[in-house]
Design goal:
Length: 633
Amino acid sequence: MRLYQIHRRPQTRRHLPRNGVRIPIYNQTPNPDITRSPWRWRRRSATYSPHRRRPRPPQPTRLTTTREPWPHTAAPPRSAAAAASSSPAGSPLLRPPPKLGDAGLELLRRFANVDCAYELTAEELRAKVSLVDALVVRSATRVTREVFEAARGRLRVVGRAGVGIDNVDLQAATEAGCLVVNAPTANTVAAAEHAIALLAAMARNVAQADASLKAGKWQRNKYVGVSLVGKTLAIMGFGKVGSEVARRAKGLGMDIISHDPYAPVDRARAIGVDLVSFDEAISTADFISLHMPLTPSTAKLFDDETFANMKKGVRIINVARGGVVDEDALLRALDNGTVSQAALDVFTEEPPPKDSKLVHHEHVTVTPHLGASTSEAQEGVALEIAEAVLGALKGELAATAVNAPMVPAEVLSELSPYVILAEKLGRLVVQLVAGGSGIKGVKIGYSSSRDPDDLDTRVLRAMVTKGIIEPISSAFVNIVNADYVAKQRGLRISEERILLDGSPEIPIDSIQVHLANVESKFAGALSDEGDIRVEGEVKDGKPHLTLVGPFSVDVSLEGNLILCRQVDQPGIIGKVGSILGKMNVNVNFMSVGRTAPGKQAIMAIGVDEEPEKEALKLIGDIPSVEEFVFIKL
Ligand SMILES: NC(=O)c1ccc[n+]([C@@H]2O[C@H](COP(=O)([O-])OP(=O)(O)OC[C@H]3O[C@@H](n4cnc5c(N)ncnc54)[C@H](O)[C@@H]3O)[C@@H](O)[C@H]2O)c1
Ligand SMILES: O=C(O)[C@H](O)COP(=O)(O)O
């Protein structure tokens, strides 16, 4: 591994951030440059962070490492090219193109410590990943389950600087509560242009003729090509790249058909493309261009059987992923003439073995995964991923999140006070459960005048889940892994909308949380149906508890809470207040709810400090107090 620095700011403790985050830019392919630069990230005191962690036990070593650069002493000698990359800025000739575009790197550097490294072995990546908060990779770095395990919960975001996320274990990321974001749009045109370049180069034997002429030959007869105009091109995968290829190929006079089980017919029709079945596409096309993602269902989709059903002499372009083609089958199809030519930018194994028969086949044109490699695309991708990663670190839900609900920023901002309310209600309700009674079913109700389609509650559900699970386990829960963690713990979360007749301006009137089939340590919180039930509202931007069991209360959900059930009679409030006052516990809120005068009542008392056990005992000893519970919010 080579690891060295091309840019370094003075590195003293004074210069280091209080809450440093560290983002490495890793790539395991040869030839990128390497940059390392310590810089600052100041964590904002955001009101909501889906990535907020439970307080960690003191871990001095790890905390120190967040503020310091990785050791430089172990860096082995650098190659000339790499050394050139670390030369003073200003000499473009001495600087190979950066792996992540400068604009993106600069943006990242404004907010965090950034280390760039390449040619890391899997082992080296695992060793480094526990020191970082975010990881930015391109397609060559495999972010496996082992990488997430090695991160030991620190890694909060993986940024894939590109489209394909087949190199990231999404399930493992989700289980680890790590958000994965990609940069899905910035390289679309570059990939489409490369597909067209390969299509034309293959049809006219450009690469072969170039090599032949450079070898001193003049072979005009050997390299007679085929025309594109009037030929049928089948686009397999009519997504962003596929549809851009279609537009361009139309301009070349080709007839375009496409197969994509999920593409909207209207979008294809608007470009003048017919969506057809897989069999029709492969059996009628003269050229087939692959543009689907690599997934378990597309792996080796193009196998012996598929090639056998193609039109004799078909030509194939693959700018998607090598893994969608069975490369041995393609070789056989090339050898027996079923496929007359192939143009490949991507391979199952990258780089492919040096002696790969496919790469050296005379009817195959190859490029080393260059689809996204234009300076424009790389700048765009770098900016797109830098913004997504920084946004995610700040607690915003990135629009390009791959393993979490994409909640637009404006929706999140509108819902942010309800997000806090949801988590507080979860924390409250779980502390009302009697020890030993397992929680199985959670029902969350949202009373709202909004059309259900205009109210995205996924983030609220996640926060109720977080509130319920975190106080009773060591699990770290966020929007990414909330559903997964709930499922793992056998927690069934259901949601219900209660449609009100009010103004849709206010997104939510109240949120209710019910726990069914559990015993409560505070009988006053049981509804008539026997569920533990709490309800809250947002008032003046702050979360308030408004209902406990059948009792209406109104107490701000901040700090700590004492709930007392007593027989409604004069003087109790004064008695409780004076006990707390004597113990130096500041009461910030107090509210009494009762079913009827002189009957049962509930007193909800918001306190800043946690009262001594003695104070709680004294409250419990007041004769008319029937039960009480202390809750940390
Ligand atoms: N070579 C490169 O450098 C390069 C650059 C960009 C993208 N890519 C790759 O190109 C592919 C497409 O990228 P994109 O940005 O257009 O993605 P996209 O998600 O916009 O489009 C993919 C399309 O494939 C379709 N699809 C899924 N399964 C399919 C199947 N079984 N059969 C047919 N279609 C199927 C989807 O419905 C979708 O419309 C990805 O594999 C991506 O990784 C490669
Ligand atoms: O999926 C992609 O975006 C492309 O394959 C580009 O990958 P790269 O970042 O390794 O160039």
